[in-house]
Amino acid sequence: MDEQLRVGLVGAGPWAHRVHAPGLADHPGTRLTAVWARRPEAAEELAHPYGAAVVTSPDELLSTVDAVAFAVPPEVQAEIAIKAAQQGKHVILEKPIASTLDDAERLADAVTQSGVASLVMLTKRFAPETEEQLAQLHAAGGWIGGNARWLTGALLDGPYSHSPWRHERGPLDDIGPHAFDLLDAALGTITEVVTANRSDAGLWQFVFAHEGGATSSATLTMTVPLNPSISEVSVFGEHGYRAFADRGTTAQQSYTNLLDDFVAMVDSGTTTHRCDVRRGLHLQRIIEQARRKSEA
């Protein structure tokens, strides 16, 4: 692009400090212009090292930027992102894109009607090795099943253990989108949540049906004291068993890759991407169906 995108950041928590702010400030196509957070002192602490302005409201932020990145709970993200899209601002969204399916649909509609660019930070999908392996799986074909295991102690200790929305919504909303997205991308569109169960210990287990006939399962928890945590996705079929390999791409590197795509989308006027708001809406539908199944 001839000029850097002016990007406002909504949120000033650990993920904003670790990934969003340095990524936006360091990328050649973006400039971290303004920061808003519910706690002004947190916004000031985040903004100061990058020379970004601290604004007093989301409306003030929207008046000064071309795009908005979000690092806030889903219920906060959805309302501000809808307003941003309606004002023609491009959006970088966290998962899940909303706290309810209705809000996710409203957000997707606002983005589509406004014709703005949107991307969802599905971290592993912006790691080069993931896309390489997905391409290999699709070229081979013949996969009939798969499994995902996402086992962490993130709610017990560490920077995200004090996050109220994560404790309230649990692994279904927080790490679920990552697992569901990879199973869906590898085996075909998830068409049904066959079973979903949450144990008293906070362990979620799922079975999915996929377009084309494959089935898969997933096990998620954020309350097992594992160090390091486990995040594994595998598929099996006529070509044997394949597990996704992790080549060490960090969250920061994935975010830089996301920004590469985002800037290119804005520059070219492209509004579709494998990880755009419509992907986020699809994952929200899976979350909603899983929650209903677990409560039945």
UniProtKB/TrEMBL annotation:
Origin: domain of life: Bacteria
GO molecular function, one term: nucleotide binding
Keyword Oxidoreductase in record: yes
Domain Gfo/Idh/MocA-like oxidoreductase N-terminal: 5-117
InterPro entries hit by this protein: Gfo/Idh/MocA-like_OxRdtase_N, Gfo/Idh/MocA_oxidrdct_glycsds, NAD(P)-bd_dom_sf
Ranges annotated as spanning the membrane: none
Family annotation (Gene3D superfamilies): Dihydrodipicolinate Reductase, domain 2, NAD(P)-binding Rossmann-like Domain
Signal sequence region: none
Keywords: Oxidoreductase
Protein name: Oxidoreductase domain-containing protein
Source organism (scientific name): Saccharothrix espanaensis (strain ATCC 51144 / DSM 44229 / JCM 9112 / NBRC 15066 / NRRL 15764)
